[in-house]
Amino acid sequence: MTGNKSAPRGLLERWFQAALKAVDPAVCVPPALPEPPPGRTVVVGAGKAAARMAAAVERHWPGPLSGVVVTAYGHGEPCRTIGVREAGHPVPDAAGVAATREILAAVDTAGPDDLVLVLLSGGGSSLLVSPVPGVTLEDKQALHRALLRSGAAISEINTVRRCLSQVKGGGLARRAAPARVVTLVLSDVPGDDPSVVASGPTAVVSSAAEDAAAILQRYRIPLPDYPLKPLHGNDSEGYSASTPAVEHRIVATAWDALEAAACAAREDGVEPLILGDALEGEAREVGRALAGIALSCRRHGAPARTPCVLLSGGETTVTVRGRGHGGRNSELALAMGVALRGCEGIYVLAADTDGIDGDGPHAGAFMGPEIWRAGVAAGLDGTARLADNDSRGYFEAVDGLLVTGPTRTNVNDFRAVWVVSGC
User: Fold this and answer.
1) What is the average pLDDT score of the chain?
2) Does residue 45 or residue 150 have the better pLDDT?
3) Closest of 48, 58, 55 to residue 20, by C-alpha
4) Is this prediction's pTM over 0.90?
5) To 10 degrees, what angle do helices 254-267 and 7-22 make?
6) How distant, in Å, are the alpha carbons of 302, 330, 331, 421 from that of 358?
7) DSSP for residue 268
8) CATH 3.40.50.10180 occupies which residues in the chain?
9) Does domain 25-252 match CATH 3.40.30.10?
């Protein structure tokens, strides 16, 4: 517990740290490692946890390794033989293009007796960058920015991404053929589908151009001048036309994190209720719904008797209409504050398990009666700040931000709503 924080804030943070520990690649990667191959082992990967996953592989692999992984700026970790590159997230950049070239060159060296061990985690979609012919990096950047501000769900965004990439939707696995491919997945997506994490570079899934176009139209994003054309195996030199055999192993999920937080809460004498690991929707709407559930717990003892903590994960979205700064978790926390209006006995932590919420550098935010009163005393209009998407500005002014720095793991959102007493 942080010494200079109140007991509610300290306990919420303790439960969050318990969740992070359970999905630390140093803990969850080693048990999932495959048997070494007759030949060489080439390690490649992408995502915010990729460097820490690579370091875990190095510590536990019985033979020589080579390869390269790419992670977001600030999320690197030293490795001895596996190269670690850093690149742009959530918008791809030239460093991601260069790192992806290195990854493709590494798998090109693998033969039928070799193993390509792929390490994937959330964030990999932006970090693995290899546009299809006719699409430039600038094209991808512009479309990424528009999608991120639109409120589109991650599955919809990935449908569009796969239509612009030579590596997503199984492209990396095709490039690795005829080597055996084993992919370790640290899942940050609702449902834990390997074809969705990092847009599925080793899961052979095609996105139809018509589906991508429909998504852009749904969110009022202008259709691009270039064609939305999925890449197939025989469309580009170096890619196998056959469907490669890939084994996917899920090493950690949001549910693992929530169960660990629940165990820590029980140790502290608070009964946990896990509402689910796949809650999606607009962050402010999910926040209002969670506020309503918390009030029901206190007033009616349902769906849980107090004292209790309501735990949930998943990935909310934000449709950006204002000019402020923040992220989906701080926006959710502010929406709860607006709904609760300083209600005594209800405390909230909403944070991203990768340590970066939106445009950071915060992981998320705390909300409770003391923070709401501090906002009122400072003359902050929570409703207006929410309308302007300025949750970061609100919580900065009341010392409500949670700042962890990069955690080097990623199972997406974590929310804990502690219901202590009545209003």
Assistant:
1) 92
2) 45
3) 48
4) yes
5) 140
6) 33, 9, 10, 32
7) T
8) 25-252
9) no
| Residue 80 burial (CB count, 10 A) | 9
Q: Amino acid letter at 313?
A: G
Q: b or e along 248-277 (b: 16 or more beta carbons within 10 Å of the residue's beta carbon)?
A: bebbbbbbbbbbbbbebbeeeebebbebeb
Q: Peptide bond preceding 178: is omega within 30 degrees of 0, i.e. cis?
A: yes
* In the block, residue with structure tokens 């008797």: 305
pLDDT of res. 163: 87
Homologous superfamily, domain 7-20+254-419: MOFRL domain (3.40.1480.10)
Environment class of 228 (CB within 10 Å of its CB; exposed 0-12, middle 13-18, buried 19+): buried
Least confident of 83-97, 131-145, 379-393: 131-145
Query: Do 366 and 9 form a contact (C-beta atoms < 8 A)?
Result: yes
Q: 254: alpha, beta or left, given left = phi > 0 and alpha = psi -120 to 50?
A: alpha
**Alpha carbon distances (Å) from 235 to 158, 166, 239:** 20, 9, 8
Mean pLDDT of 382-408: 97
Every domain range in the chain assigned CATH 3.40.1480.10: 7-20+254-419
Strands laid side by side in the 271-282 sheet: 271-282, 308-317, 413-419, 346-352, 364-367, 401-402
